Amino acid sequence: MTEENQDRTKVRIYTDQFMIIGDIAMFADSRLTDFMVSAHDFIALTDVTVNTLDGKTLFKTAFLNVQKEKINITLPESMVVQD
User: Fold this and answer.
1) CA 78/CA 17 separation, integer angstroms
2) What total of structural domains would you count in the chain?
3) Which residues does residue 63 pair with via DSSP β-bridges, in sequence order?
4) Is 30 within a domain?
5) Residue 46 lies in a domain
6) Is residue 81 part of a domain?
7) Do the domain assignments include residue 83?
8) CA 58 → CA 19, 51, 53, 55, 78, distances in Å?
9) pLDDT digits over 50-65, tens only?
10) Who's near 7: CB < 8 A, 6+ residues apart?
11) How remote is the C-alpha of 48 from its chain's centroid?
């Protein structure tokens, strides 16, 4: 993937234990669903915050691989509505 045809998309990923917020590199004009279906065993995230499910920040890191089979929910962070 080259810089000209990729976009960074901020996503929220839920696993059984964590809520992870970070950026993924996707082709411009592609859907998150298509990205997830075509991904292999791990999802690479950058600019990452890892939280407990109740929102307590555990750590932040520049890069994190998340095992795809551990993911329960993935959504664009822009679609999250706070109460």
Assistant:
1) 22
2) 1
3) 46
4) yes
5) yes
6) no
7) no
8) 10, 5, 10, 9, 22
9) 999 999 999 999 999 9
10) 25, 26, 27, 28
11) 8
Tokens in use for 42?
Answer: 């791990």
Q: Cα-flanking dihedrals φ and ψ of residue 82, to 5°?
A: -85, 145
Asked if 9 and 76 count as a contact pair (C-beta separation under 8 A), the reply is yes
Residue with tokens 């109740």: 54
Distance CA 58, CA 75 (A): 20
- What domain range includes position 60? 3-76
pLDDT tens digit sequence for 1-52: 445 567 888 999 999 999 999 999 887 778 888 888 888 899 999 999 999 9
3-state secondary structure 13-82: EECCCEEEEEEEEEECCCCHHHHHHHCCCEEEEEEEEEEECCCCEEEEEEEEEEEHHHCCEEEEHHHCCC
Instruction: Say what the pTM is.
Output: 0.85
CATH number for the domain harbouring residue 35: 2.30.30.100
